[in-house]
Write a structure and sequence with these properties.
With 114 residues, this protein is an alpha+beta fold. The protein contains 3 helices and 5 strands. It has a 5-stranded mixed barrel with strand order 1-2-3-5-4. The protein is globular and about 35 Å long.
Length: 114
């Protein structure tokens, strides 16, 4: 029989709560490139790296078109984030879901931009 200490149980509960608390909703205020955008969070823009995708970089072919596709899809819209921590640059890694149910990450892949 497995016995867990109260402190161990509290640690797991607080860790789970921290993960849930990192998800948030806000308007998309800037598109930096095809896979990076900014969403207003607590009155400040937070840089978001779209999880699981890689669009062309600024000096690569189709970079402007990927950025335009992301902008057309998400700019100015309310978005819910499902976050997965931070990357090495301090950006929040997330799936971005629009209020109509569109998953921005999946849509950019389906349209061939990433």
């Amino acid at each position: 029989m497995l016995l867990l200490s109260v402190s161990t149980v509290c640690f797991f509960i607080s860790s789970f709560a921290a993960v849930l608390a990192s998800d948030f909703i806000g308007p998309v205020v800037s598109i930096l490139d095809g896979d990076t955008l900014e969403i207003l969070h607590n009155h400040h823009p937070e840089r978001i790296r779209l999880s699981g995708i890689d669009c062309p970089e600024k000096d690569q072919a189709y970079a402007q078109k990927a950025k335009h596709a992301a902008s057309t899809l998400a700019f100015g819209k309310e978005a819910k984030l499902q976050t997965f921590g931070k990357d090495k640059y301090g950006r929040t890694i997330a799936d971005v879901l629009l209020s109509d149910g569109t998953n921005v990450n999946h849509t950019l892949v389906e349209e061939g931009w990433c």
